[in-house]
Every structure is written in structure tokens, then in C-alpha cells.
């Protein structure tokens, strides 16, 4: 067998092993990465880092040795997070910027300022999002429009800004935080939210296809989290298969580090639920959603 083919097959097998380990035992997988300090000298940019999943991811990436470029509107929280992480991990750099992602031109300015400051960005995580959607036809167009804009149009602007940077670096990993609610059209208050997250997942898949076609070494990862208890669902009753923020963010960072194309997280039960949601009749999906 030609050397090149053997090398390719070995790489593919190693990549598959890494992804399976990260999916089945995310905490153990991350322990190994922490020992190796895989993030040393690398920078990850996270939007929506002032609470929940974004804040949790910042903590884990810091533990892995990454420098952090974090943004959100609540800068008091970012300042606190920076102070905490810098005292715990003095070998990394943490910088923050105020960013309202509904100000599209500010997204480009903030991302470009971060790249100027850090020199290079290894990962950009499009995470900022809102969950405030309402049943269609009940007079809540403004609420639904806002959700569609923040979760999709603002995410599109973040993908544009990140990909411009990655194209000029000829490297990088774009990560989008979609949702299990993107698997099918969902009823009631989930309709616009799910549609915005499905649009985001299709956008990411299109960018991934573009990278394949152009043979550029830029990775695109789409993460579909199940229910994770954060501020976005503070007042919700117990949710199906819900996990706490630490369990959820461990699963998310493990999938990102394993450079998945797509992952439902935590892998169990959501990869199975995802397959079921795609195949079952809509009236049954309604009952489990
Ligand atoms: N928790 C879940 O069960 C779950 C499941 C699937 C997907 N997700 C997705 O995960 C992402 C993070 O959500 P979360 O659960 O961590 O909720 P969260 O605790 O409410 O965090 C949302 C983050 O987004 C930021 N954000 C919201 N609007 C923004 C704006 N206009 N400009 C800039 N930042 C903005 C918030 O920061 P500021 O308010 O400080 O600006 C905050 O940091 C969202 O995209 C969400 O849809 C969550």
C-alpha cells in the first residue's frame, strides 16, 4: 500500500478513536488533555461567555492551557471571570471585550481586535444565544424576530468574521452551538428557537462543505446540546435528560477538542434521541419534545 494511503488511514483511525473516547468519557478525555496542556500558546474566542455554557467552556479551556478572548454584554461578569482564571492559571492570558451581537459591525471590530491582540485565533465558538421564543400566530412577532436575529443573523455575522480570520491564517476551528431542538420542527414556544438553531446548523454544514471543496485546512464543528441547566432555562420545570452546567460543558469541550463535524451532547442519550427525532412521525416527536 502506498505510504500516503497508510498515513491517511492511520490518521482517520486515530481521529475516530479520539472522537469515541471524547463522546463516551468526556471528563477522562479532558483530564488527559489537561495533563498534556494541549492549549498552551493557543487562543480560543468565546461569545456569550458571561454565563452558562460560555462561562463553563471558558473555565475548561483555561484548565487545558488556552488563552481566552471572551465577550458578552455583561462585562462585570467577564471581569470577574478574568480575575478568577488569571489567579488560578497564571500561565494563560485572558482578555475581554463588551459585545452586543445584535450590533453586527461591532462583531467584526471585536473579533479583529482580539486577533490583533493575540496574534492568532485557534478556535472561535459562536455561542451567544437567547431562548425567548413564543407560539406562532399569538401576536409575539417581535419576540420571535429577536430570537431569529440573535440566534441566526448575529451568528452568521460571527461566522463571517471568524472565517475571514481563519482564511487569512489558513487555519482554525469554527464551532457553532446549535441545539437538539434543531433536529425537527417543534411546537409552541420552541418553534422559532428550533428553526433558528436548525438554520445555524445548516449554515455551519455549508461552510464545512465549502472548506472541503476548497481543500482548506479549517475545521467546522456543530454542537447540538440537549438540556443543560443554565440561565436560559432558569424558570423551566425539570427538563428531559437535563444535566448540570459542568456535565454539559465537559461534553461540549470534549467534542470540540475531538474536532467532530457534528455531535449531540451529552452523547448519551442525545445521539440516540436525535436519530429517533429525525425518523419518528411528528405527533410522536411532539410528545417527547
Ligand atoms: N442550556 C441549554 O439547555 C442549551 C441547549 C442547547 C443549546 N443551547 C445554546 O447554548 C448557548 C448558550 O446558552 P446558555 O444555556 O449558556 O444560556 P445563558 O446562560 O443564558 O447564556 C447566554 C449567553 O449569551 C449571551 N448573549 C445573549 N444575548 C446576547 C447579545 N445580544 N449579545 C451578546 N451576547 C449575548 C449572554 O451574555 P450577555 O447577556 O452578558 O450579553 C450569555 O453569556 C445558546 O446559544 C443556547 O441557545 C443551550
CATH classification class: Alpha Beta
Q: How many separate structural domains?
A: 1
Which of globular, elongated, flat, extended, rod-shaped describes the shape?
Answer: globular
Ligands, deduplicated: NADP nicotinamide-adenine-dinucleotide phosphate
CATH architecture: 3-Layer(aba) Sandwich
Q: State the share of residues found in helices, binned by percent.
A: 55-70%
Strand order of the largest sheet: 3-2-1-4-5-6-7
| CATH H-level homologous superfamily name | NAD(P)-binding Rossmann-like Domain
Mean pLDDT: 96
Whole-angstrom Rg: 19 Å
Number of H/I helices: 10
Overview of the structural elements:
The protein has a seven-stranded parallel sheet, with helices on both faces. Helices cover 55% and strands 13% of the residues. It has 289 residues and is α/β, with parallel strands linked by helices. Helix 7 (191-214) links the parallel strand 5 (172-177) and strand 6 (218-225). The radius of gyration is 19 Å and the shape is globular. The chain has helices at residues 3-24, 26-36, 52-63, 75-88, 104-118, 141-169, 191-214, 245-257, 267-279, 282-288; strands spanning 43-47, 67-72, 94-98, 123-126, 172-177, 218-225, 262-265. The protein starts with a helix and ends with a helix. It has one domain (16-288): NAD(P)-binding Rossmann-like Domain (Rossmann fold). Helix 1 crosses helix 2, helix 3 packs across helix 8 (245-257) and helix 6 (141-169) packs parallel to helix 7. The chain contains ten helices and seven strands. The model has no long low-confidence stretch (mean pLDDT 96). Bound molecules: NADP nicotinamide-adenine-dinucleotide phosphate (NAP). NADP nicotinamide-adenine-dinucleotide phosphate binds at residues 48-54, 72-74, 99-102, 127-131, 150, 177, 179, 225, 227-228, 230-233.
